[in-house]
Amino acid sequence: MTTGHLKTLAAAALLLATSAARADNNTGMPDGSHDVSFAVTAFDTPRSEGGKRRQVGVLPSFTGRWSSGIFAALGEVGMDLSDDPVLNWGPLLTYDLRQRRTDDPSDKGGLDVEGGGFIHYLWASDINFNSGVLYGGGANRTGIKLVGDVDLSLRLGPHASLTLSPGFELVNASYMKSSFGVTPTQSANDGLAPYATHAGLKNVFLNAGINWQLSNKWTMSTGVNTTRLVGSAGKSPLTQQRTTATEYLQFSYHY
Fold first, then answer.
1. Cβ distance 147 to 129 under 8 Å?
2. For residue range 194-208, what is the model confidence (pLDDT) as tens digits?
3. Where are the domains positioned within the chain?
4. 3-class SS of residue 20
5. Which residues does 188 contact at the CB level (< 8 Å), separation at least 6?
6. Which of 8, 65, 94, 252 could be disulfide-bonded to 71 (CB atoms 3.0-4.6 Å)?
7. In this predicted model, what pLDDT tens digit does every residue of 157-194 receive, in sequence order?
8. Strand, coil or helix: what is 58?
9. Containing H/E element for 14?
10. Burial of 35 (0-12, 13-18, 19+ CB in 10 A)
11. Domain 3-254: CATH class, spelled out
12. Closest CA relative to residue 4, chosen from 98, 97, 109
């Protein structure tokens, strides 16, 4: 497998991890304590937003949280500054490989780093509202993104649960233009019609996952993350298909 393919697989895994990661509440953790898990995830995912090309891979990941409020997962690092068991908030830093457009066939390296903050509200024991604002996204790395979703958890038995997470992403004009717009110069190079975009709703999504507690240490998770591009993103000539999905299977070990 080439270095470019490895970079693409890593980017896919980071996207998957970022879309599924949650800042766990550190309230009630003894001072100096931590909670750490290691996992291996197999996935099948699109190479870019709205693209038809796909990648399959297997990658390790790490998830941890500490009594200080710091948490980390593949694709993100943050800190929960709240002592409230219901409302969590704080700074968030996410990282991913360079965002590519569907008309970019290269496997160029480089990291996209987005910084901002998150808010999580536990409305009920099985309903959690989540939102976050991040800067640094899009193909030109100057985009602003607002993400909102709700986690609905259902028990399927003593050792299994189902989580449904519907949500949306709003982006600013810079994000939309750099990722889905077509300038006259790009039109001449790509043979696509010029296309102007505007800020607004970029996509809606539904993530569905099932967790099985295999033992005190081992957990198996599987699911599908489905995304539907809308607005300027959905109508862009760069969008080859408006609805895409990522499938994954994960085994995690609680250390």
1. no
2. 999 999 999 999 999
3. 3-254
4. helix
5. none
6. 65
7. 999 999 999 999 999 999 999 999 999 999 998 889 99
8. strand
9. helix 3-20
10. middle
11. mainly beta
12. 109
